[in-house]
TrEMBL record, chain A:
It is found in: Nucleus, Nucleolus. The keyword Transcription applies. This is WD repeat domain 75. Keywords: Nucleus, Repeat, Ribosome biogenesis, rRNA processing, Transcription, WD repeat. GO terms for biological process: positive regulation of rRNA processing; positive regulation of transcription by RNA polymerase I; ribosomal small subunit biogenesis; rRNA processing. The lineage of its organism: Eukaryota, Metazoa, Chordata, Craniata, Vertebrata. It comes from Ictidomys tridecemlineatus (Thirteen-lined ground squirrel). PANTHER family: WD REPEAT-CONTAINING PROTEIN 75. The gene is WDR75.
Length: 830, 775
């Protein structure tokens, strides 16, 4: 039984990874990025999240490595604290309490006991750069109140501050001026560009600044796409600058490489530009990065760069400008039209992703699974361009079908509509476009739904449109002499007094279709497409429409714009009950009769959980979010929880997730965030500390395949993977140089023997014969791999057997060495 | 020949060019009114001297002229942007109260001072007294000095755009630090001397020669100017007498480069045959000393090490370093031909510069600026700055900055900046690019305070370095000099003829006329188009120095370096008879300025020996009347003349000495106006009063920027006091394109010769195409 706690609203991942510049560890193995209230530690090689450092109670605003100990990390937050972490173990070492809202953090190598932060001490929009002395103390929580002021009236963004030449000066830019403060001389030089008031159309506002690591050179990025390299700035008169101009839109971020030989810049063009030797003619490009580059950072070792993008991703880039890894969070930079959906197969959250894409986002692992390109057109990132928008999507038939609607409206009368139907292909494990219908309706499509009844033999889709019609689309045979195929065609067009169709919904068994036409709900028989009855409440247009489930399947729920929630009894065709509730989101739980409704009031949003059969709600939580809740969805749990209290029972089988207007994804939980770490991610922690051998990479590939298989079979139990690296025989084999290795026949025997060991605990008969045969047929020459997979399947529970393997393998190895002389060629013959 | 015919005879380009030509040919008559404008804050200084006979006027202690008072309210020193050239007096000067600007059509009109209010139509009639062309051609500002406020009226303005003058492109620029002068040579062999301290005034010029294509220009031994060219000759110029002192063949084929040693006593030339020749400069000649090791291909650039022990020579594909003592090549540095990874044609080293620390900077045709260590012969650093050739380099004397010019019209500034503030290590950094040219920048120079560049697009651009400028004022602004600071046009008022002077021919045009009248600002249709009457080609390779047409229109005189020509014109309806007056006296070899008296009876010739000749013109012949010999000891040439309208007085001015005034009746020197420390740019003698007006090149704005300029008010309905308070002597018009000439034909007609810069650019070869973003 789970301990009963009050239900809290918690952030559940999907937070911004691109809020600040990412930071590399000293050895470039890890990359740190702020993510909401946490700091996430990713492996640069595997893209996996290794640690989540939590401890801050508000948004983390800055992270920097401790210059004196590169295994430690400083972070600062809006909660007014600076925390020092051991990121390898994920341990909070110290907390320094500053007390003011901290907006950014900078560390310097020579200033050993102080860091620099941006605060707004007095006025809310006047920002200052101050240096904070971190007192030395053994206690965990230390007050750091010794602040010394450095620069005033600076820009809030840390991109506009840069420390140069081992901390001799700090450069800050804001609007049209660059100020440079020299710590030794304690003087400030200020250089002003002619502002846009003086010159027409000149947008030379400063946007970012970077300092050369070796030379006295400041690079500044500007709104008009120019980069200026300032030199001689210690002299107010003799200062000089040169311009580099490639970007056509504002320069979002700049970074010098570690040696200073090249300058990296990025912006709206989605191209990373490397300026070598600060020369205009000598530049390299890494194009097609997908979306606006927000931040650029460089690893201290100099071998990696990384760019943070506006679509919430971090790309790790090699020194030779090859993108090597992509850390993708929930894409959030655009408005969500499709709402939240759950892919019935992967249980992934599905919503609008990159432009023209649907993203499949795993809530469990808090990472993006994949993107499905719906629009399949090159995205041109330009201001004022009207793009094709993916507006609606729906899954049907247990995830076998996906319907999408895309539209583009340049003018009032020029509407381009397209509906696409995608079939799930089991072989490729993805959706394949099946039918493309251009202009399915003459006006905007307001709703589409599949008939998800178990017994329905023909997949059916209903679309409702503002043009006053709803259309029923069915799957028909589209075979010709060349191939067998299926396709979708329109089966029925219905309308009701030319009213705009606003919603549609199938009943649970698929026998009834409810279509709302503005204020009127019509019920249609799905066999004959006859109008059965109408309900009219005259309380504004119907905004939500949904049939009840299970025991409540005789009820139809409707929410109207005027704030009335109605429940009709379909058997008696009467209004069962109605209540005044201004509903923004109404979602049915797929595994119970429950409905969740979120209402909007001036104070905030409230959650109501109710059953259609009872007018009294099961659970009410007031003020779940201050913002407007835009979308919500019930996500089935992997493992059902057992809450005994009645108020918590609605969370037993599913969890309710919702998305607010500022696109933060929230859910309800009773557990503390630490407990939310799933066993898989915990195991990843242990594995991350293992040496990366070649074998490890092979293993990694197999694990990914297995993960997919797992998802496919929807098995909830976790298959733990064997720790083959601990077998000495394998270790020796892989770590011995190739030229001293014995012949393959010896290796083969060694392998087989080492594998035999594990069979002592589990009977050898468990290996399915057919798998064995298949694998041998597939590839005889790659013995190692085959053996390994075999083992991977066999040792399904290594946690228990680890000790045995260790003990036995040592003695076994001795035996093996003796046996080397013995001819085992007969094994190869098998 | 008629204008239309001439236009058709020219090779026609694409549609745009021909349209441009048509526009240029258009000759419109427009009525004009008077419009006040803002005073821009600069003008040439005009000194009004008291009339002849009252000579004490300007003998103040500092040589500054006293104010002149003539009539009512003229007692102010009048400021005028008057360059050298024709200045003329209008007929009835009574009061100098207003500057006038003739307004043509509204399309060019912009009055910054009265934005939004529209402009008030002036009602007063102004008579023009002094008229001048602006020096600063690109801003088309016109200043008039107006004498009469009474009466109402308008001007008819001939806007002439058929003067098809294209200045030759700039080939070399040499800056002399001692005298702060700049020598500029053009592609036709003309050499011009600009005085940078005198407000960039072009004070001297040496006319070009067809066979002398100047390739190199340098100052040596203080202020001696040498040039060398593709005819293989080294020339020295006499800066006093304004002629070529001598020409000496270097016997190495065409000369591509020349440089004077740091001490100025030796001259080094690089020749086509790969030889580098050393000449010793003697007080009145140069003497060949020896040859250096001969190279395989032509020497395109040369540079001395400041200690004069080594020289660097840029050739094709390599740079050689010579030891001056032994004359042998000690280093050979091969320049990379690669251009963006592709092997291009041969890499021409267009310029080298030897720095005192042994660094050689080279610029080449692959667009690179490279730094070499001459001690080891290794490449230290390379900057790829252009897709086209980098054609010129100039290093500052302090060796802390240099400038290069590219074929794309960009000049780049490089500066030596310290790597970090606390270390002594310094590095060369490319700083600002300047794009003031459309075509190749063939030559650059680096004065202590400015970057100077010139090229095929004929502009001389002087870009001050803001960090070196003490006070940010007009002097610190960018200068673009396109047109020569002398008069190329003369006008016959009676016959309404214009004589245009080109390098090798003269063109005579008759102005069109109109019968139509219109409102102020209207464009009047021409009833008769302008006629091209005469095309007079010179014989021989020499350029025309000066030309003049008599006010009656029946005499034309012009001069080359070797001869003065005089022609008699006879008009018979539409036919013209041209008869050359032969037997010019032998002593009259060349003239710097020619002028006819108002009644066309006398001809005044300023010759380059410094003497002034007066000839009596008779029907078909002439008679030498008198020669004013230069004062003893001076050989300075007279290059400005002014004749009083009554023909009794002649004023002449040299480049630096004072203005001499001669009595023509008595044929004797009347007086000499003391020299002012800025050169004279224009002279004029007022009619009736016989006041001499002198304009100097220093630009002290007399009505300063804050002075309010008033509209001329209607004289009738306001009190006289109020009128006097609000009336102002200065009016500015900004409606014109760059003006080359302006004169008053009669009391109500003006002629203005415009030369839009676009038309010049259209006649140049197309510039290197550059990709522009978004096109």
């Amino acid at each position: 039984m789970v301990e009963e706690e009050s239900i809290r609203v918690v952030h559940c991942g999907g937070s911004e990874l691109n809020f600040r510049r990412a930071v590399f560890s000293a050895d470039s193995k890890y990359i740190f990025c702020v993510s909401g209230d946490f700091v996430k530690v990713y492996s640069t090689a595997t893209e996996e999240c290794v640690h989540i450092l939590h401890g801050h109670r508000n948004l983390v605003t800055g992270i920097q490595l401790n210059p004196n100990n590169p295994l430690q990390l400083y972070s600062c937050s809006f909660d007014g604290t600076i925390k020092l972490w051991d990121y390898l173990d994920g341990i909070l070492i110290k907390t320094f309490i500053v007390g003011h809202k901290l907006h950014a953090l900078f560390t310097l190598a020579h200033a050993e006991d102080s860091v620099f932060v941006i605060t707004n001490k007095e006025k809310p929009d006047v920002f200052q750069l101050v240096s904070v002395k971190l007192p030395k103390s053994s206690s965990q929580e230390i007050e750091a109140k010794e602040l010394s002021f450095v620069l005033d009236y600076i820009n809030q963004s840390p991109k506009c501050i840069a420390f140069g030449n081992e901390g001799e000066y700090v450069a800050a830019v804001r609007d049209f001026y660059l100020s440079v403060y020299f710590f030794k001389k304690k003087t400030t030089s200020r250089f002003t560009l002619s502002s846009s008031r003086n010159k027409k159309h000149s947008k030379n506002n400063f946007t970012c600044v970077a300092c050369h690591p070796k030379e006295d050179c400041i690079a500044s990025g500007h709104m008009d796409g120019k980069i200026r390299l300032w030199r001689n700035f210690d002299d107010d008169k003799k200062y000089t600058y040169t311009c580099l101009h490639w970007h056509h839109d504002m320069v979002m971020d700049l970074a010098f490489s570690v040696t200073g030989t090249s300058l990296l810049s990025g912006g709206r063009e989605c191209v990373l530009v490397e300026w070598r030797d600060a020369a205009e003619k000598n530049k390299e490009f890494l194009p097609r990065l997908g979306s606006t580059i927000e931040h650029i950072s460089v690893s201290p070792a100099g071998d990696l760069f990384c760019t943070s993008h506006s679509d919430n991703k971090i790309i790790v880039i090699h020194r030779n400008l090859d993108a090597s890894a992509v850390i993708q969070g929930l894409v959030k930079d655009r408005s969500i039209f499709t709402g939240l959906m759950i892919d019935p197969r992967t249980k992934a959250l599905v919503l609008n992703g990159k432009p023209g894409h649907l993203q499949f986002y795993s809530l469990q692992s808090d990472k993006q699974l994949y993107n499905l390109d719906i629009i399949q057109q090159e995205y041109i990132n330009d201001d004022g361009l009207i793009q094709i928008e993916l507006t609606k999507a729906a899954f049907g038939c247990y995830g076998n079908w996906l319907a999408t609607v895309e539209q583009r409206q340049e003018k009032e009368t020029e509407l381009e509509l397209q509906m696409k139907l995608w079939m799930y292909n089991k072989k490729t494990q993805g959706f394949v476009l099946n039918t493309k219908i251009s202009m399915p309706h003459d006006d905007h499509i307001t709703a589409l739904c599949f008939c998800n009844a178990e017994k329905s033999e023909i997949p059916t889709l209903v679309t409702a449109s503002k043009d006053g019609y709803f259309k029923v689309w069915i799957l028909t045979d589209d075979s010709d002499i060349y191939k067998k195929a299926v396709g979708w065609t329109c089966d029925f067009v219905g309308s009701y007094h030319k009213y705009q169709a606003t919603n549609c919904c199938f009943s649970e068994d698929g026998s009834l279709l409810a279509v709302s036409f503005e204020e009127i709900v019509t019920i249609w028989d799905s066999e004959t497409w006859e109008l059965k009855c109408t309900f009219c409440q005259r309380a504004g247009k119907i905004r939500h429409l949904c049939f009840g489930k299970f025991t409540c399947s005789k009820y139809l729920l409707g929410g109207t714009e005027d704030g009335i929630l109605c429940c009709w009894n379909l058997l008696s065709c009467t209004l069962e009950w109605s209540t005044k509730l201004n509903i923004r989101v109404m979602e049915p739980d797929p595994y119970s009769e429950n409905f969740a409704a979120v209402s909007q009031s001036s104070e905030g949003s409230d959650l109501f959980v109710f059953k259609p059969s009872e007018p009294r709600p099961l659970y009410i939580q007031k003020n779940i979010s201050r913002e407007e809740v835009q979308w919500g969805v019930f996500v089935p749990r992997d493992v059902p929880e057992l809450f005994s209290s009645e108020a918590h029972q609605w969370l037993n089988r599913s969890q309710f997730y919702f998305l607010t207007k500022s696109q933060s994804l929230l859910t309800f939980s009773t557990k503390s965030p630490e407990e939310k770490l799933t066993p898989t991610s915990k195991q990843l922690l242990t594995e991350e500390s293992l040496p990366t051998t070649p074998f490890y990479f092979i293993l990694g590939k197999h694990r990914q395949q297995q993960d997919e298989k797992l998802n496919e079979t929807l098995e909830n139990e976790l298959v733990q993977l064997p720790l083959t690296e601990n077998i000495p025989a394998v270790n020796e084999l892989l770590h011995t140089p190739a030229h001293v290795l014995p012949s393959a026949s010896f290796l083969c025997s060694m392998f087989i023997n080492s594998l035999l060991l594990s069979k002592e605990t589990k009977s050898a008969e468990e290996i399915p014969d057919d798998v064995d045969m298949e694998e041998e047929k597939e590839s005889d020459d790659s013995d190692e791999e085959n053996d390994f997979t075999e083992k991977a399947q066999v040792t399904s529970d290594p946690g228990l057997e680890e000790d045995i393997i260790h003990q036995l393998s040592k003695s076994e190895e001795k035996e093996l060495r003796k046996l080397r002389k013995v001819d085992y060629s007969w094994i190869a013959a098998l | 020949m008629a204008a239309a015919e001439r236009g058709a005879a020219r090779p026609t380009g694409d549609n745009r060019t021909s349209r441009r030509r048509r526009r240029r040919r258009e000759h419109c008559l427009r009525t004009s009114g008077l419009e006040p404008g803002a005073f821009p804050g600069q003008s040439l200084r005009a000194r009004a001297h008291v009339g002849l006979g009252r000579r004490e006027a300007s003998s103040g202690a500092g040589g500054r002229p006293a104010a002149v008072s003539r009539g009512r309210g003229v007692g102010r020193r009048c400021e005028n942007r008057v360059p050298r050239g024709a200045a003329c007096w209008g007929p009835t000067p009574r009061r100098a109260r207003q500057f006038l600007c003739p307004e043509a059509s509204g399309d060019y009109f912009e009055d910054p001072g009265r934005k939004g209010k529209g402009w008030r139509r002036p009602r007063a009639l102004f008579r023009l007294t002094l008229l001048a062309r602006p020096v600063k051609a690109e801003c088309s500002v016109l200043y008039f000095w107006v004498s009469n406020l009474e009466g109402m009226g308008e001007f008819k303005v001939h806007r002439v755009r058929f003067f098809n003058y294209v200045p030759p492109g700039i080939r070399c620029v040499a800056y002399n630090n001692q005298s702060n002068r700049l020598a500029v040579s053009r592609t036709d062999g003309t050499v011009e001397i600009y005085n940078l301290s005198a407000n960039y005034f072009q004070e001297k010029f040496f006319p070009g020669h067809e066979s002398r294509a100047t390739e190199a220009l340098c100052w040596a031994e203080g202020q001696r100017l040498f040039s060398a060219g593709l005819n293989g000759e080294i020339l020295e110029y006499d800066l006093q007498a304004l002629n070529v002192k001598y020409a000496l063949d270097a016997f190495g084929g065409p000369i591509w480069s020349m440089t004077a040693s740091p001490s100025g006593s030796q001259l080094l030339v690089g020749c086509e045959d790969g030889s580098v020749k050393l000449f010793q400069i003697t007080p009145d000649n140069i003497q060949f000393e020896r040859n250096f090791d001969r190279q395989k291909s032509r020497i395109l650039s040369l540079s001395w090490h400041p200690s004069a022990t080594h020289i660097a020579a840029g050739s094709i594909d390599y740079i050689s370093v010579f030891d001056v003592k032994s004359g042998s090549a000690v280093r050979k540095m091969i320049v990379d031909r690669q251009y963006m990874g592709v092997s291009k044609r041969k890499c021409i080293v267009w310029g080298v510069a030897f720095l005192s620390d042994g660094t050689v900077i080279s610029v080449d045709s692959a667009g690179k600026v490279q730094f070499w260590d001459s001690a080891t012969g290794t490449l230290v650093k390379s900057h790829l700055i252009s897709n086209a050739d980098v054609q010129s380099i100039a290093v500052a004397d302090q060796e802390d900055s240099f400038v290069v010019g590219t074929a794309e019209g960009t000049i780049f500034h490089f500066q030596l900046v310290s790597v970090t503030s606390n270390s002594s290590e310094k590095q060369w950094v490319r700083t600002k690019p300047f794009q003031h040219h459309t075509h190749d920048v063939r030559a650059v120079a680096h004065s202590p305070t400015a970057l100077i560049s010139g090229g095929t697009d004929t502009h001389l651009v002087i870009r001050p370095l803001m960090e070196k400028v003490e006070v940010k004022n007009y002097d610190a602004a960018l200068r673009k000099i396109t047109f020569p600071h002398r008069c190329l046009i003369s006008c016959s008022k009676k016959k309404q003829l214009l004589l245009f002077q080109f390098a090798h021919h003269l063109e005579l045009w008759r102005l069109g006329s109109t019968a139509a009248t219109g409102k102020n600002g209207d464009t009047l249709p021409l009833s008769k188009n302008a006629d091209h009457l005469l095309h007079l080609k010179t014989k021989g390779p020499e350029n025309i120095i000066c030309s003049c047409i008599s006010p009656c229109g029946s005499w034309i005189a012009y001069s080359t370096v070797s001869r003065v020509f005089l022609y008699r014109l006879n008009y018979e309806h539409d036919n013209i008879n041209l008869k050359r007056v032969s037997k010019m006296p032998a002593f009259l070899r060349s003239a710097l300025q020619i002028m006819f008296s108002e009644d066309s009876k006398k001809l005044f010739v300023a010759s380059n020996q410094g003497s002034l000749h007066i000839f009596q013109l008779l029907e078909g012949s002439f008679k030498h009347l008198h020669t004013f010999q230069p004062q003893s000891g001076t050989v300075e040439a007279m290059c400005l003349l002014a004749v009083s309208p009554d023909g009794n007085w002649l004023a002449a001015s040299g480049t630096s000495a004072g203005v001499h005034v001669y009595n023509v009746k008595h044929l004797k020197l009347h007086c000499t106006v003391p020299a002012y420390n800025f050169p004279v740019t224009a002279l004029a003698i007022a009619p009736i009063t016989n006041n001499l007006v002198i304009a100097h090149s220093d630009q002290q704005p007399l009505p300063n920027d804050k002075t309010l300029l008033y509209n001329p008010l209607p004289p009738t309905n306001e009190s006289d006091v109020f009128r006097r308070r609000t009336a102002h002597a200065f009016k500015i018009s900004k409606i014109y394109k760059p003006l080359l000439f302006m004169d008053l034909l009669d009391e109500r007609t003006l002629v203005a010769v415009e030369r839009p810069l676009d038309d010049i650019i259209a006649q140049l070869p197309p510039p290197i195409k550059k990709k522009k973003f978004g096109t």
